[in-house]
């Protein structure tokens, strides 16, 4: 921060301060800015539109709303772009580039003149990347997302991205739908602009950002196409100017209490397992270490309250109508740390003082007395197969395999899985445990391949869930008994690398155990599977491969964390 706001007081980078100001004024005047403009405080607005990020396609309209808010409050809006990580069209996975985007945004926040910033995002990795950058650059920041899509319809059935995408595809694979029908469904899954409207990673990160106090109330849930969203944009712009007069930075706002509140909301919404990695990474940017045990402890004390897919039946627009995150926070009050600060200058407790969860007319946000599901939506597992931990989203599993012992069917990579999963000669049954290795951070950038498909011949017999275990991730919109983030990953010598077909594996959710039931002498005799590495040779991929931390540490690059 400089003492003087706006461009006028900016320090020089040319050695001669007078010359620097003169040169900057010359170039800014070419864009139509006069002396009066340049005295105003500057609000940077981070633009993450891209034709490749379909979820952000209405962002230009939202940016206009934010700009109006900034101008009304006496600031000067300056829009700038960063890489946009669109979940669906980025290969091999946006997770590989989350840290790159975080680095890019951090450098732009720190090295372009701005007195505060509005961080505009939405799609899964954009919000965590922006928050990681905001914490590291530590300039006054306020988050705003594009908001969720509305739902579609097909033959009287409400559909949404992308829990229903998966269910309909599973039906098609199981021959419940024909080619014409699945083509019709394709037109209805994503009917408007906005982010996936189930409680996937985008929705989860939006709710969690609101719980962290970095976004205005209801900012997580207002639909992308709603006027609520536009008004949030205007208010966020005004708030960004107010922040300059009363500067408070992300590191001053966030605390262990804020992360406790975020973990509580994550559990109550039955949110995406990806948020565990992202929250851990954001916290470590300021030297707070969240462990898998922290997530497990908070989850075990927090019932599932929000009825959204994949853990429930509804969608984000329903949650918005029900009062959004403020109503949820009001319900969760006894479990929250209400003294946590927020970007508004109020504590979280003050911010939700007048919020209520009124269940007389809505059933999307349930009460602590009558929750939708038991506590423990997310559990952390440990055992001889995952010495440093693994996670399971119990709320999205069928429950049939929560205590299970079955023989392993091992796949060495995503390609191996794709090539062989439907091969009937493997003779898999629903009791088999599908083990997919070499999709961890260093091996593959952690693609969302962890929710391996049910073999087609079993799907046709009606099998919809099996135990699946990997060192990768799954989409927040997925469901099933899918054990993820196994650490250490196979390519870093984790026990996953030693599993062979037919080995017995035990999962026990109650005891939080994931064991490979093979004796140690036998394991010592085995040769680990060939490690894989993503892009060891050059460029960002080399930087990533050489420095990425394991999932329970946030999968950030080691030199970017604060501790
Ligand atoms: Fe962007 Fe789902 S693909 S939010
Ligand atoms: Mg996703």
Automatic annotation (TrEMBL):
Which residues, if any, are the signal sequence? none
Q: What is its EC number?
A: 4.2.1.9
Per the database record, which ranges form the Dihydroxy-acid/6-phosphogluconate dehydratase C-terminal domain?
Answer: 364-555
Tell me if Iron-sulfur is a UniProt keyword of this record.
yes
**An MF annotation (GO) of this entry:** dihydroxy-acid dehydratase activity
Q: Specify the Dihydroxy-acid/6-phosphogluconate dehydratase N-terminal domain's residue ranges.
A: 40-350
Q: Which InterPro entries match?
A: Dihydro-acid_dehy_C, DiOHA_6PGluconate_deHydtase_CS, ILV_EDD_C, ILV_EDD_N, IlvD/EDD_N, Sugar_Degrad_Dehydratases
The broad enzyme category this protein falls into is: lyase
What Gene3D superfamilies does the entry give?
A: IlvD/EDD C-terminal domain-like (3.50.30.80)
Q: Per the database entry, which stretches of residues form a coiled coil?
A: none
User: Cross-referenced Pfam families, in alphabetical order?
Assistant: ILV_EDD_C, ILVD_EDD_N
The protein's UniProt keywords, in alphabetical order, are: 2Fe-2S, Amino-acid biosynthesis, Branched-chain amino acid biosynthesis, Iron, Iron-sulfur, Lyase, Metal-binding
Q: Report the domain of life of the source organism.
A: Bacteria
**What family does the entry list?**
Belongs to the IlvD/Edd family.
Query: What PANTHER family does the record point to?
Result: HYPOTHETICAL DIHYDROXY-ACID DEHYDRATASE (EUROFUNG)-RELATED, HYPOTHETICAL DIHYDROXYACID DEHYDRATASE (EUROFUNG)-RELATED
Protein known as: Dihydroxy-acid dehydratase
Q: Which organism is it from?
A: Leucobacter muris
């Amino acid at each position: 921060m400089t003492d003087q706001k706006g461009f006028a007081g900016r320090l020089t980078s040319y050695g001669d301060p007078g010359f620097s100001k003169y040169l900057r004024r010359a170039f800014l005047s070419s864009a139509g800015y006069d002396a009066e403009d340049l005295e105003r405080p500057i609000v940077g607005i981070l633009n993450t539109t891209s034709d490749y990020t379909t979820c952000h396609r209405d962002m230009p309209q939202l940016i206009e709303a934010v700009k109006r808010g900034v101008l009304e409050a006496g600031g000067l809006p300056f829009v700038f772009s960063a890489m946009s990580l669109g979940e669906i069209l980025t290969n091999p996975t946006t997770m590989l580039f989350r840290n790159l985007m975080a680095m890019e945004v951090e450098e732009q926040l720190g090295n372009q003149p701005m007195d505060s910033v509005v961080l505009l995002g939405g799609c899964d990795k954009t919000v965590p990347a922006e928050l990681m950058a905001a914490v590291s650059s530590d300039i006054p920041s306020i988050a705003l997302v594009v908001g969720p899509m509305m739902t579609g319809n097909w033959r009287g059935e409400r559909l949404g991205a992308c829990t229903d995408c998966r269910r309909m595809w599973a039906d098609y694979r199981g021959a419940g739908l024909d080619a014409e029908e699945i083509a019709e469904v394709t037109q209805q899954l994503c009917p408007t602009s906005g982010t996936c409207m189930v409680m996937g990673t985008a929705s989860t990160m939006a709710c969690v950002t609101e719980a962290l106090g970095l976004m205005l109330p209801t900012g997580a849930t207002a639909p992308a196409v709603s006027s609520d969203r536009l008004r949030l944009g205007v208010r966020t712009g005004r708030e960004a100017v107010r922040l300059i007069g009363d500067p408070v930075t992300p590191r001053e706002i966030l605390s262990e209490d804020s992360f406790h509140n975020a973990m509580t909301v994550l559990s109550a919404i039955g949110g995406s397992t990806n948020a565990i990695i992202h929250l851990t990474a954001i916290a470590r940017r300021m030297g707070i270490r969240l462990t898998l045990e922290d997530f497990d402890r908070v989850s075990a004390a927090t019932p599932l309250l929000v009825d959204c897919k994949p853990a429930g039946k509804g969608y984000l627009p329903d949650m918005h109508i029900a009062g959004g995150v403020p109503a949820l926070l009001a319900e969760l009050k006894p479990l929250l740390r209400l003294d946590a600060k927020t970007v508004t200058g109020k504590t979280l407790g003050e911010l939700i003082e007048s919020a209520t969860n009124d269940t007389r007319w809505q059933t999307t946000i349930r009460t602590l007395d009558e929750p939708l599901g038991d506590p423990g939506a997310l559990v952390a597992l440990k055992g001889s197969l995952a010495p440093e931990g693994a996670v399971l989203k119990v709320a999205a599993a069928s429950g049939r395999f929560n205590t299970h012992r079955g023989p392993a069917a091992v796949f060495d990579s995503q390609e191996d899985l794709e090539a062989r999963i439907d091969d009937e000669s493997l003779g898999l049954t629903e009791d088999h445990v599908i083990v997919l290795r070499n999709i961890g951070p260093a091996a593959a950038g952690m693609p969302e391949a962890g929710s391996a498909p049910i073999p087609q011949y079993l799907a046709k017999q009606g099998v919809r869930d099996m135990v699946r275990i990997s060192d990768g991730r799954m989409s927040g919109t997925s469901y099933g008994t899918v054990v993820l983030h196994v650490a250490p990953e196979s390519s870093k010598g984790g026990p996953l690398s030693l599993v062979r077909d037919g080995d017995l594996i035990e999962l026990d959710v109650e005891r939080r155990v994931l064991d490979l039931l093979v004796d140690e002498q036998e394991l010592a005799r085995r040769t680990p599977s060939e490690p894989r590495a993503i892009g060891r040779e050059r460029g960002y991929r080399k930087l990533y491969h050489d420095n990425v931390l394991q999932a329970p540490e946030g999968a950030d690059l080691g030199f970017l964390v604060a501790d």
